[in-house]
Amino acid sequence: MFFDDERSNRLRPHILTELVGQFMNDQERAKLFGLPETTRIRERAKVISPDRLKIGDHCWIGEGAVLDASGGMEIGEHTSIGLNCLVFTHSSWLANMMLENHSGTDLIERKPVRIGKGCFIGGNSVIMPGVTIGDFATVQPLSVVAKDVPERSLVAGNPARVFQRYDDEYIQGEAERVRAENKRRRELAEERGETVVWGAPAGEFDKP
């Protein structure tokens, strides 16, 4: 049985869109949700109020992530949101405290979230309303981010705090290290007659 009221009719197209999206690959799903064509959004991920989400190119949204953009959300280019992450832009705690937790309550508070470019948000992390995460920041998995995160920093914990700062020299050095190691692994894989894929081939590569 389906209700024929304003709220139900407003929500149903979003429900159907998510249902259809489960049968698509990550790029097809991004196109269905109206995201940039270079965006990839994995299965079971959900975007609330997608019309209020501004997202850059080459972003990745992991399985089961929930992006609540109802209060406004910006995500910069080349940023990844890990699996099962929760990004909130609204809170209803006052509606609960005042016993007014009904549809249409005027005790919902909304604050935008801004996540910069080149960020990595580790899986199962929570981003609270009103938070700004600077460019090139890393949030370690299982973190709860309730305050702004400086650019080029690594944060972790509940509540999340800064453990490390990055500079260009450090990032460049790490990129060169990983590229060299992946090149070595691909060459060894070719010598073994194994199929070589992009990135780092899986398996044991400590021994020739």
Provide a descriptive summary of the structure in words.
The chain is globular and about 65 Å long. Strands 1-4-7-12-15-17-18 form a seven-stranded mixed sheet. Strands 2-5-8-13-16 form a five-stranded parallel sheet, with no helix packed on it. A four-stranded parallel sheet has the order 3-6-11-14, with no helix packed on it. It is α/β, with parallel strands linked by helices. Helices cover 25% and strands 23% of the residues. The protein folds into two domains: 47-166, Hexapeptide repeat proteins (UDP N-Acetylglucosamine Acyltransferase, domain 1, 3 Solenoid); 167-208, no CATH class. The longest helix has 24 residues, at 168-191.
How would you concisely characterize the structure shown here?
This protein is an alpha/beta fold. It is built from four helices and 18 strands.
Characteristics of this structure?
208 residues, Trimer_LpxA-like_sf, five-stranded parallel β-sheet, 18 strands, O-acyltransferase activity, UDP N-Acetylglucosamine Acyltransferase, domain 1, alpha/beta, 2 domains, seven-stranded mixed β-sheet, Hexapep
